[in-house]
Amino acid sequence: MSSQSLYKVSGNIAANALVNNDKYKTMYQESIVNPEGFWREHGKRIDWIKPYTKIKKTSFDDHNLSINWFYDGTLNASANCLDRHLAEHSDRVAIIWEGDNASEQRKITYGELHAEVCKFANALRSQGVRRGDIVTIYMPMVPEAAVAMLACARIGAVHSVVFGGFSPDSIASRVIDGKSKVIITSDEGMRGGRAIPLKRNIDDALKNPDVTTVEKVIVLKRTGGKVDWVEGRDVWWHSLMETASEYCQPEEMDAEAPLFLLYTSGSTGNPKGVLHTTGGYMVYASMTHEYVFDYKAGEVYWCTADVGWITGHSYMVYGPLANGATVLIHEGVPNHPSPARLGEMIDRHKVSILYTAPTLIRALMAEGKQHFDKFDGSSLRIMGSVGEPINPEAWRWYHEVIGHEHCPIVDTWWQTETGGILITPLPGATDTKPGSATRPFFGVQPALVDNMGNILEGENEGNLVLLDSWPGQMRTVYGDHERFVLTYFKTFRGMYFTGDGARRDEDGYYWITGRVDDVINVSGHRLGTAEVESALVSHELVAEAAVVGYPHDIKGQGIYAYVTLTRGTEETEELRQELRQWVRKEIGALATPDLIQWATGLPKTRSGKIMRRFLRKIAANEVTNLGDASTLADPAVIETLIESRLNRT
Ligand code: ATP
Ligand code: MG
C-alpha cells in the first residue's frame, strides 16, 4: 500500500507547474518557520481596501482561544471575485452553465456577472437586507445561486446556503438558527430529469410555527412550474431586477467580518453552523485553488460539487472567481441521463481541471468502462477528489478511465470547518500514492496524537490534529461558541482536533483512515474502516462497501460489512465466502469480515458520504432509536437494510 504504488510526477508536468518538489519544500518550510512573513506576502494576492499591517493573532489554548488573520485590513469578497477582473478581463467567460438537459447552455462573462451581482445586491437592499443580516439561499445549480451569494457579500450580508436537496424540516432548523429575514429560492430546480419543488419546500418550512423571522422570499423563475404565492411576502427575482441599478459600491468589510454560515454534512451527528470570515478565507480559498489545481488563466475548471457544500463555496465560487477562472457549473448530476454524461461534458467544454468525489467515481465504476468508449478526454490535465477517503481501486479507475494515465490526481483532505484544502498533493511537486492525501499545504501543521494527546513521531497512526491556525479556519459555531471550543479544542489541549484518524507512512505521507468514531477494535487491534472497505472494493464484483464494528462476545468488536455488488452480479453464499477470503488475503486474518450483508444501497448524506452511524446501529441490532436522519439522502435505504439485517451468532 505504500511505495510500490508510487505515481511519479512526470518531468513535463513539473516543468510547467506552479511548483516543483524543491519549491514546495522551500515554501512549506518558510510558511512554518516564518508564518508572519509568509502570509504577509501571500495575503497580497487579494485586493484590500485598507491593506493589513497585522497578520496573525491566533491561539488554540481552549481558555484563551483566538483566531484572527490580516485583522486590521478591510476588503470586499465580491469585489475580489468580480471588479478586479474588469479592467483586463471583462469579456472573459466567468461561468459556463449546462442545464440538467444538455440542450440548455449559457455563458456569462465577468462583465455580465458583475452587472448581475450589482443589480441583485441593490435588489436585496430594496427588500431590507442590511450589513450583517443572515440571508438563507435555497437554490438549484444555476448561475443565479452564485449571483445571490456574491450579492450578499457585496453588501456585507452573511449568506447561509442550504443544499437544494434538503427537506422543509432541515430548512426550517437552519432558518431558525440563522434568524433569517430574507430567503432566496427558485420555483423549481432540475436534477436528473426531475423537477424539485424548491418553492414548495420553502412554503412548507415557513409553516413551522417556530420560524418567526422571515419577511421576504425572493423567487427565481427557473422552470416556470406552478407555485403558491403569499402576497406581500413573496417577490419575483426578475421583477426586482427590472428596476435595479447596475451600480453598487461594494461595502468595506473588516477582514474578520463574517462572510458566510454553512452547516456541516451531518455524517456524525447534528450539523454545526460553521462561520467563516472574509479576509483569511479569501486568501486561503484563492491560494489553494491556484496551487492545488495548478490553475492557469483561460482554462476551464469543473467542480461537480453542489453550491450547498463547502466545496461549492470555496472551489466553485470564491476561490476560482477570485482567480479569474472560467468555471463550469452543471445543474444536474454527472451520471444522468447515462454514466457517459461526465465524459461528454468534459469533451464538450474542453475541461482542463475536474474536481469530484469518490462517491461519483464508485458509481461510475459500478456501471462499467464501456460508457467511456467514446470519451476523448484530451483537454483534461488535473483531477481532484474530495469528501471521503478514495479507495485505491477507485483512484486507479479514475486515473485510467478518466485521466488516461496522464493526469495527476489531487486527493484533497479538508473539512467545512477548515474553509480550504489542508492536506493534498500539488501537481508537479508531489509523487502520488493511490489513497493517500499525501502532504500538508503551506502553513498547515498536521500531527498525529495518541488518545492522551501525546504527539506521535515518524511512521505512525493516530488522531489527526492541527497544531497551528491557517487563514481559512472557521471562527466559531454560529450562536454557540462553547460548542466550537468543546468540539475542536478540548479533546487535545492546545490543538485543533479534526475528528479523523490518519496514518503517516515512511515518506511522511498522510493516509486518512476515516473518522475516529468509526475505528473498529478487533481483539485489541485498531482497524480503520477505510482500509477494510478499500480491500472489499478492490474485488472486481464489489461496487461499494461500508464497514462497521458490532459487539462481539470474544473479540470485543466484530466486523460487519455492507456490500453493494456491481450491476448484474448475483448475491450468492459462495461470493460471500470469496469476499471474506479476499479481505483476509489483502489485509490479514484480523480484518476478515464476520458478517457480510448485501446492500442494494448504502445510507448516505446528501453530499454522498456514507453514514456509518446508522450502519453501526443496524449491525448492533439497535434499530428502534436510530437518531437524526434529516441529512440522509434516501431514508428508504435504511428500512431495506433493517429488514434484511443478519442474525448475529
Ligand atoms: P459532520 O461534521 O456534520 O459529521 P462531515 O464531517 O461529513 O459532517 P464535511 O465537513 O462535509 O462534514 O466533511 C469533512 C470530512 O470529510 C472530513 O473530516 C473527512 O472525514 C472527510 N474527508 C473529506 N475529504 C477527504 C479526503 N480527501 N480523504 C479522506 N476523508 C476526507
Ligand atoms: Mg465533520
From TrEMBL:
Binding-site positions, ATP: 387-389, 411-416, 500, 515, 526
Similarity annotation: Belongs to the ATP-dependent AMP-binding enzyme family.
NCBIfam families in UniProt: Ac_CoA_lig_AcsA, PRK00174.1
Domain Acetyl-coenzyme A synthetase N-terminal: 24-81
Class in the EC hierarchy, top level: ligase
N6-acetyllysine PTM positions: 609
Transmembrane segments: none
A Pfam entry, by short name: ACAS_N
Protein role: Catalyzes the conversion of acetate into acetyl-CoA (AcCoA), an essential intermediate at the junction of anabolic and catabolic pathways. AcsA undergoes a two-step reaction. In the first half reaction, AcsA combines acetate with ATP to form acetyl-adenylate (AcAMP) intermediate. In the second half reaction, it can then transfer the acetyl group from AcAMP to the sulfhydryl group of CoA, forming the product AcCoA.
Name assigned to this protein: Acetyl-coenzyme A synthetase
E.C. no: 6.2.1.1
Record domain AMP-dependent synthetase/ligase: where: 83-466
